[in-house]
Amino acid sequence: MATTATGTEARVCADIARRQQLGVTKYGQTVADNPLSWREWAKHHYQELLDAAIYTRRAIEAHDAAVGRPTTDDLWR
Question: Which domain covers residue 27, as residue numbers?
Fold first, then answer.
């Protein structure tokens, strides 16, 4: 039984489709057609995760500043 995604899930699916189109436009191929090695894929993934951590920390710091809360290292508690 197939169901259709709605809400957040549907928006993520749409984001994936848009991201794929951007990639095809930029690189001329899909990820499936890209002949990178396993290690090269893992390296790209690792770099993307580092970027995501930076973006997330930046968002936390911006939120803290907006609500007048000093940013601390309380993320570890």
Answer: 1-34
